[in-house]
Amino acid sequence: MDASVDYLKHAKDAIKTEQHALDLLIEQLDERFVTACHLIENCQGRVVVTGMGKSGLIGRKIAATFASTGTPSFFMHPGEAGHGDLGMLVKGDVLIGISNSGESDEIRTLLPVVKKLGIPLISISRDKRGILPRSADVALTLGASEEACPLGLAPTSSTTATLALGDALAVALVHSKHFTSEDFALSHPAGALGRKLLTQVKDLMHVNNLPTIDEHSTLNEALFSMTGGRLGMTVITNANNQVVGVFTDGDLRRSLARQLGLDTPISQVMSTNPKSVNPDMRASDALTLMNEQKINQLLIINDDKTLAGILTLHELLHAGVN
Questions:
Q1: For residue 51, with 0-12 CB atoms within 10 Å meaning exposed, 13-18 middle and 19 or more buried, which class applies?
Q2: Does 77 appear as a known binding residue?
Q3: pLDDT tens-digit profile of 206-247?
Q4: Which of 55, 175, 215, 259 is deepest in the core (most CB within 10 A)?
């Protein structure tokens, strides 16, 4: 380890250099960017991103960002494309080619076929001088920024600017498509946001062997129903199977404190206005309600007032709803 190396200084200098590259990128944005947005927005197929080396790594991220924000997209390796994968391209697609120099041999090989297929081409490169931007329908440029690498060789500032430009395209399209958090959740069902926005009460509620008794039952029958259901409660229904009340462990404690007999009509000790929600409610909203009301169970009621299920706090937490 070289004790004379000022790591913090070099780190800050690198970040400042990349920051300058982003400032330079902002200056490059003009009507070409708008045209590129329109091309992608009106695309009837997929946005296919290609690039070699570090440009390819950035291209994968750009394609992933497009795909997760409502623009169908995937990455195509230019080397593999020259050996058959070019068949991934179909009429209606838009191709984004990334090469800082604009002279990638692998992409150059693809250009005649792309033109023959009539695939619109958007290029991302340092300037307009390379074969790639000259062949593109829209040539987006990054500007001739200095690489943060002290040798001026490792792609650093240029890849940062490329990634930022890809993000800018995706974000602009999020606005134009009026893409919502609900739309985002559809492509992220395994993530926390997906669980929050997609999971409904009906996905988690208990529906089998629900503890219920009719409104003419006694406290004794309520106890048997509660202990058999293992949910800490029983639901009271009328002759039409509509919910008229609930009897919980809290109601039981109050009944015992009053020293009521087991033959006491359940109608005298049940709670007549239990908290309930619709099966289509978001599970996250149900959790909020349960926390606000300080309850551990929630009745799920259909529009006709019949019991659809019972949701417990345990099920919500077990499913990772928050």
A1: buried
A2: yes
A3: 999 899 999 999 999 999 998 887 888 999 999 999 999 999
A4: 55
